[in-house]
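Researcher: We're teaching a course module on how sequence relates to structure. For the next exercise, students receive a sequence and then see the predicted structure as tokens, so they can try to spot secondary structure elements on their own. Here is the exercise chain.
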Amino acid sequence: MKKIVKPLFGISIIFILMAFQSGDVLCNAKELKEKAKLYLEPYKYDSSELTRIMYKKKETIKEVEVPLFIGEKYRIVFELEALPKQVEVQIYNKDKDSKGRKLLFSSKDQGEKKEFLFEVSKTRHVYVDYVVPPTEDGSYSGCAVFMVGYK
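Model: And here is the predicted structure for the students to work with:
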């Protein structure tokens, strides 16, 4: 019995130490979505998405497409509390490979806020770009939530 307990105890200690050394922020999707939902009123909930953000030694851009119906008014709420380092959120009318792409919103002018909202209508898609800054501390991660509501 002692031959089994000692190795299991040692392995358990290693896993616990590895968990504390990680630079990752825990992503509690339910909690983040509840916070985002507070900013959605008076719009009705349509959808939400949790996006995992990986920080690397060079700047990266993570793009997410958001399909919309023409004729509806939408509010998009961002909750960035679970990111260890500020990320710029940009919203475009076309994807990053398209010509004639127009910037509709940037969080750059919003300061260090962790929640943003953007209202849009008369378009079929918007493209959310998360501009992830470089890090010198190695790679680590966090997550961002956006929630879409319609009127």
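Model: If you want an answer key for the exercise: The CA atoms of residues 80 and 113 lie 8 Å apart. The chain has one domain: 24-150.
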